Amino acid sequence: TELRIAVLGVGMMGADHVARITERTKGAVVTVLNDYFPEKAEALAATIPGSRVINDPLDAIADPEVDAVILATPGPTHEKQLLACLEHNKPVMCEKPLTTDVATSLEIVKREAELGRKLIQVGFMRRFDREYEQLKGFIDDGVFGQILVAHCVHRNPAVPPSFDSSMIVKDSLVHEVDVTRFLFDEEITTVQIIKPSANPGAPEGLQDPQIALFTTESGRHVDTEVFVTTGVAYEVRTEVVGELGSAFIGLDQGLVRKHRNPAQQASGDGRKVAGIWGGDITPSFVERFGDAYDNEIQRWVNAVRRGDNVDGPGAWDGYAAAAVCAAGVKSLESGKAETVDMVSRSSIPGA
Ligand code: ISE
Question: Which of 246, 1, 269 minimizes the C-alpha distance to 144?
Fold first, then answer.
């Protein structure tokens, strides 16, 4: 039978997941929709046959016609909603962050571990991107030998006005935190944020761009330029460098076109004007990681239907990311390398 899903939060990500499940995901249907603004949920439900709106998120989780939950609600509401999923034994795909601070994230890890059964997956979608998957495969196969450093670029054309400097760490850089942990299978031990001159086009007071430096348990270094007000488009690149070679993902090498420069017409002499060569850059994460999200949700649905519930990053990964980001936020203030303060995984049986 088809997996009946409640989607909580129908903003950009939630609505995208509803469309994905309805149009592309096999073996799942959206039965319940919820949003802080009921009219938003109602408007969407009107377009999804078989779905209905439940206004209280906790009631939506508990509903008997809901087998599994997607949380695309704002971060501060996650803790309560995750606890409700654990209480009702409902598998949940939680968009990042797991919760908004380290202590509550650890609490969630412990509560799930006590159940003795994994229910929580965290939406770090880059792990489902084909290029990142391939990169991980080559690294694990030893093609580049021992990996020494990685260089990342994470650019957004713009962010909502509510974004402050610490959100650049907790909301954006968090993906490089997860990518580092995913690619190298080890924890990040220190974080330093370096602050270049701010983009004159960025809102007053926003420290953008930022350069982040991670060191890992084994001594690898990962640097990231995170720049969220470029005004250009959505760019995510990662390069890893090892003893035997290097690899690069995120070159945006889709269709490349060559065509006449409009100025050519005007000049009257085509020989003196350069032609145009190039392609498009995805406007946002929805397009850039569209295939990754499809893959992520399909694999999650399959896992839940098999009874495995999770196929990808879990609560521990959400907690580890929160701990690294907390060190990052501290470094944003101090300017120094800050140590990541986290418990060892083995101290929580079942985590
Ligand atoms: C957003 O929340 C995301 O998760 C995107 O992947 C990231 O690029 C963006 O900076 C965040 O705000």
Answer: 246
Residues whose CB falls within 8 Å of the CB of residue 25, separated by 6 or more in sequence, listed in order: 294, 297, 298, 301
At a CB cut-off of 8 Å and minimum separation 6, what does 173 contact? 154, 210, 212, 224, 226, 325, 328
| ipTM confidence | 0.99
Q: If you measure from the C-alpha of residue 86 to the centroid of ligand 1, how many angstroms do you get, rounded to a whole number?
A: 26
Mutate to test the pocket of ligand 1, among 156, 237, 288 (most ligand atoms within 8 A of CB): 156
Tokens for 31, please give them. 């039965």
pLDDT per residue as tens digits for the range 143-183: 999 999 999 999 999 999 999 999 999 999 999 999 999 99
Read off the amino acid at residue 235. E
Q: Domains of the chain by range and CATH?
A: 3-126+290-313 (3.40.50.720), 127-253+316-347 (3.30.360.10)
User: What's the rounded Cα separation, in Å, for the pair 70 and 73?
Assistant: 9
What average pLDDT does the chain have?
96
